[in-house]
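STRUCTURE:
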């Protein structure tokens, strides 16, 4: 997917499931990346690379690399990415 196409829920869920080596059914909007999906620092780094390289998201309301990912849900991340795409 190129940056100009935006981020669809299904695409993002599939990508997150692949990074976390999880069934896609576990990736729900309310799921916390760390507590519910078990993402560690390596998985978060892979997610950052995905957002930057595949989706063209280089900035979110909080900087990708320095933000506290503890309470970030999949739905929140999707909404933030969609908002950044709209502003671009």
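SEQUENCE:
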């Amino acid at each position: 997917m190129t940056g100009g196409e935006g981020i669809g829920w299904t695409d993002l869920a599939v990508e997150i499931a692949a990074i976390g080596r999880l069934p896609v059914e576990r990736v729900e909007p309310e799921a916390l990346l760390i507590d519910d999906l078990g993402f560690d620092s390596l998985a978060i780094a892979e997610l950052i690379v995905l957002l930057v390289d595949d989706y063209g998201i280089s900035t979110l309301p909080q900087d990708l690399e320095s933000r506290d990912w503890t309470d970030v849900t999949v739905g929140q991340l999707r909404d933030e990415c969609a908002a950044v795409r709209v502003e671009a």
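REMARK: The first helix runs from residue 9 to 20.
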